């Protein structure tokens, strides 16, 4: 979902940021297991990173806010393995496998895991970029019921293209399982006043990474 | 299992999350979808191999090698991957330089995107609602909570990580480190200084001598 609780930029009332000195990588062993399960199941290729994000955004708002980061990951993963038919709800309830697994095209092995690697999202462009650095643009005012990466605070705003970042997998399509639909990606910068009104601090500028379908010439 | 040791250390019952995660891992293992040894390896990677020490070395290299810095700011992925002693990083890494005029801060308002290959996994505060909500509207207030106050007249630039591009802040080199080697400089580069919520450590006088 797009206009859901995850889209937090500019929201008031969450209180101060609380840095933690000498913070451990994980605060409990289960967090590390959730992290690893997420990486290992992601490697099966059954869903995209955007589909994974969308499953977290679809959590009920109160559950989202009440859950720690890794608890959200866990809830998203548990929901996804059921939704994709990998695990039955009866198995989740029983806490053990009741049937053999289905065949996967890919399974992350120990040898795979020894190599630290990261996916790439840049793709050959289907056509030329419509904008260049220095162009004035206005973000579209959209509220799709599905996943998007255009945050609410930056919709319908006048900004400037600062850089062209290449052509990337389009999250709005990939999250739906509708293919990669690669789109040009830009860094678009806005003044604080454009985003937050005349009272905003003139020393502040904010940029987003905006896919071409989010932008109109201005 | 480490989870058992942890619970016993504290003499407590297993928490709800320990039980649920353990159950899901068992189910996924029994069904043949995951290999527990691979999971152990993944945890080990993020606990011991990747972390802010990687970014600190990149920043220190940029401080001593202007040609590397030029390439880093032009294409951070290419620049980092061109140095054999650095682990290769993902594509789409972008380095942004702090200057006396402009201070950069990185956030992800929509989830918690963070430059894992150079900084490791993000701290809890980076993933928290206060940081994600306020950094784009009240960055000076957020910086104050980190004990950072910038000189008057400094512009603040916020980078919201809304795509798969990832941002590494290159902080300004601290005064008093002239002639220092890369290793000594890297020890001054904190994680928060590469997110923009901190500044590099200042050299202590006795260490300044050792750094040379």
Describe the protein's architecture and organization.
The complex is a heterodimer of chains A (218) and B (212). Chain A has 218 residues and is an alpha+beta fold. Chain A folds into two domains: 29-114, Nitrile hydratase, beta subunit (Cyclin A, domain 1, Orthogonal Bundle), CATH 1.10.472.20; 136-217, Roll (SH3 type barrels). Chain A is built from eight helices and five strands, in the order ααααααββαβαββ. A five-stranded antiparallel beta sheet of chain A has the order 4-3-2-1-5. The radius of gyration of chain A is 20 Å and the shape is globular. Chain A starts with 28 loop residues before the first helix and ends with a strand. The model of chain A has no long low-confidence stretch (mean pLDDT 95). Chain B folds into two domains: 2-49, no CATH class; 52-211, Nitrile hydratase alpha /Thiocyanate hydrolase gamma (Nitrile Hydratase, Chain A), CATH 3.90.330.10. Chain B is 49% helix and 10% strand. In chain B, helix 4 (52-64) packs across helix 5 (66-74). Chain B is globular and about 55 Å long. The N and C termini of chain B lie far apart (46 Å). At the A-B interface, helix 1, helix 2, helix 4, helix 6 and strand 2 of A face helix 1, helix 2, helix 3, helix 8 and helix 9 of B. Strand 4 (204-211) of chain A pairs parallel with strand 3 of chain B.
């Amino acid at each position: 979902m797009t206009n859901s609780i995850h889209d937090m930029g500019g929201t008031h009332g969450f209180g101060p940021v609380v840095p933690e000195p000498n913070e451990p990588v994980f605060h409990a062993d289960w967090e590390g297991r959730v992290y690893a399960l997420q990486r290992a199941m992601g490697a099966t290729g059954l869903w995209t990173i955007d589909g994974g994000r969308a499953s977290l955004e679809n959590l009920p708002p109160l559950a989202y806010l009440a859950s720690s980061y890794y608890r959200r990951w866990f809830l998203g993963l548990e929901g996804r393995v059921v939704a994709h038919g990998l695990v039955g709800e009866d198995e989740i309830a029983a806490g053990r496998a009741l049937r053999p697994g289905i065949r996967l095209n890919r399974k992350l092995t120990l040898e795979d895991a020894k190599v630290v690697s990261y996916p790439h999202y840049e793709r050959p462009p289907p056509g030329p970029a419509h904008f260049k650095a220095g162009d004035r643009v206005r973000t579209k005012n959209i509220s799709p019921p599905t996943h998007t990466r255009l945050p609410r605070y930056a919709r319908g705003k006048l900004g400037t293209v600062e850089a062209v970042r290449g052509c990337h997998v389009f999250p709005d399509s990939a999250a739906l399982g509708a293919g990669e639909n690669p789109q040009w990606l830009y860094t678009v910068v806005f003044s604080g006043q454009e985003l937050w009104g005349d009272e905003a601090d003139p020393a502040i500028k904010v940029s987003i990474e905006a896919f071409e379908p989010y932008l109109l010439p201005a | 299992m480490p989870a058992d040791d942890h619970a016993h250390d504290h003499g407590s019952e297993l928490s709800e999350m320990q039980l649920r995660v353990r159950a899901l891992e068992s189910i996924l293992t029994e069904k043949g979808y995951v290999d527990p040894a691979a999971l152990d390896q993944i945890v080990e990677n993020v606990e011991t191999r990747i972390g802010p020490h990687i970014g600190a070395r990149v920043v220190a290299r940029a401080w001593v090698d202007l040609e590397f810095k030029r390439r880093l700011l032009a294409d951070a992925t290419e620049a980092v991957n061109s140095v054999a002693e650095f682990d290769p990083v993902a594509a789409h890494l972008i380095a942004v330089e702090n200057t006396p005029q402009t201070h950069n801060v990185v956030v992800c308002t929509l989830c918690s995107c963070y430059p894992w290959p150079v900084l490791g996994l993000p701290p809890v505060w980076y993933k928290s609602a206060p940081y994600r909500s306020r950094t784009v509207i009240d960055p000076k207030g957020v910086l104050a909570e980190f004990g950072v106050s910038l000189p008057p007249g400094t512009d603040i630039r916020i980078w919201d990580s809304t795509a798969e591009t990832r941002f590494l802040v290159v902080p300004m080199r601290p005064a008093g480190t002239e002639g220092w080697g890369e290793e000594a400089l890297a020890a001054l580069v904190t994680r928060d200084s590469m997110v923009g919520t901190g500044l590099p450590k200042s050299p202590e006088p006795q260490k300044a001598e050792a750094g040379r």
